[in-house]
Write a structure and sequence with these properties.
InterPro entries: 2Fe-2S_ferredoxin-like_sf, Adrenodoxin-like, Beta-grasp_dom_sf. This is 2Fe-2S iron-sulfur cluster-binding protein. Keywords: 2Fe-2S, Iron, Iron-sulfur, Metal-binding. By secondary structure, the protein is α+β, with helices and mostly antiparallel strands. The protein has two helices and five strands, in the order ββαβαββ. Strands 2-1-5-3-4 form a five-stranded mixed sheet, with helices on one face.
């Protein structure tokens, strides 16, 4: 099953992405698959914050882990709704999620 996730890029364009729930992907990998400008330099290990995004609506996300909290405490452009895309697995519960890519460093 696919879920619809909306992602606003750094130019303000909203992309409606079909995200498969059966491929063990995360938001960073989804962005890369659709060629959105997310680097994912660390390969999804919560060590670089190049996949930082802002959660724009009230969808229940998995709890933030210690590694993600630590990385965001050192990252630039962090807001109260910041998350690392690599730490958000794509599940059916994400249907309708709206995100915005954080600015590049």
């Amino acid at each position: 099953m696919d879920v619809l996730i909306k992602i606003k890029d750094r130019e303000g364009v909203i992309h409606e992405l079909q995200a498969p729930t059966d491929m063990a992907m995360n938001i960073m990998e989804l962005c890369k698959a659709y060629e959105l400008p997310v680097e994912g330099t660390c390969g999804g290990m919560a060590m670089c914050a190049s996949c930082q995004c802002y959660v724009l609506n009230d969808i229940a996300l998995p709890e933030m882990g210690d590694e993600e909290e630590a990385m965001l405490s050192e990252a630039f452009y962090v807001k109260s709704n910041s998350r690392l895309g690599c730490q958000i697995p794509i599940t059916e519960e994400l249907e309708g999620l709206e995100l915005e890519l954080a600015p590049e460093y």
